[in-house]
Amino acid sequence: EGYIxxxxxxxxLGMLENVDxxxxxxxxxxxxxxxTGYPELTADQGVNSLENIRFRDGLxxxxxxxxxxxxxxxxxxxxxxxxxxxxxxxxxxxVARRMMISLMASELFLLLVIASxxxxxxxxxxKPLAALRRTVDGRIAQPELDFAPLPLKDVPQEILPxxxxxxxxxxxxxxxxxxxxxxxxxxxxxx
Length: 191
What we know:
Blueprint: H1 10-16, E1 24-30, E2 33-37, E3 54-60, E4 63-72, E5 81-88, H2 90-141, H3 160-190
Antiparallel strand pairs: 1-2, 1-5, 3-4, 4-5
């Protein structure tokens, strides 16, 4: 009859009003006139493009809201109808805050696990060196010097060249010590 009407069933309005989530507001606009919904929820100029749903932030009675707008062509109408749905952002921010806290807690837990694994790995990796140190310490405690080479069977490959070089040094020290012992023995015999 020459004008547009929209009848929303009560069940649809009931879906929009839910105490477990943020408040939802809507409006249906044709040629700048609100057909149904909240007249305070005004549309942007230039929303008449039929491309995609557009999103924007705004205020509704001083409360921050997130607005989704879409322009739709309806048969027998010469201009598009603009449909807007807006939701307050209180719960959205609370969910984002909870997600951030849980993400930080999980990252902290992950860092603690990684740190404990690193400490365990370093301790486990240095056990052969500790055993080698105990072998050397045991030789120091003996009354007579022991120039026998250090065992190479349990030495990690990374320090094998060092232990081999140390064993070569022990041979040279032993040879020098033996030469010194013979010299002192000969000198004391001559005296």
